[in-house]
Amino acid sequence: MSSNNGFWNPMEVQGHRIVKMPFRCVNKRILQQIIEDSFKTKLADDYFPLLIEKDAVTYLELQYGGVANVLPHPSSGVPPHLKTLAVIGENQHKGTGKSLMYAVLEDYAKLNWLSKPDRDANDLYKKIAGKGKPFSNCEGITYLSYFVNHSRMEKRAALGYMKMQPDSFISENPEPQPLLTS
Prior knowledge:
28% helix
């Protein structure tokens, strides 16, 4: 592989032109718009700092139709983690997400990610990784976990990592938290 790790060279994946780049070089305003349009909610304040801290890699569809963010080394013993796959509303169900996933999987033979059970993307995820396994994260939110080419130990480590991750989005109508009393 070249010294630039394949960064900046557009690739054609199923009719979509995708460029891979270090997250630190991405226009954060555009990225935020793509992700928030896709998920129809606001990103949490700690989303971008986490991606910077973990030296994330971004795959951007060149027409700004979608984005994938990968944490190559999320935590010790955890294979690469797909933090976000987001496709703007007008590009959904047109192959943009599938092309982004294939571009990511071209670089990462082992990959894990989570998804809320009601997401349309779970149909694609099931084709790639099999049926998602439900779990709850540290905030009690239910997700499905997906794993590609993981050993049992890697699945355990990845699931442990996913369970500790707070939601990437701000809840529009947060549930009232019970008061702690002594």
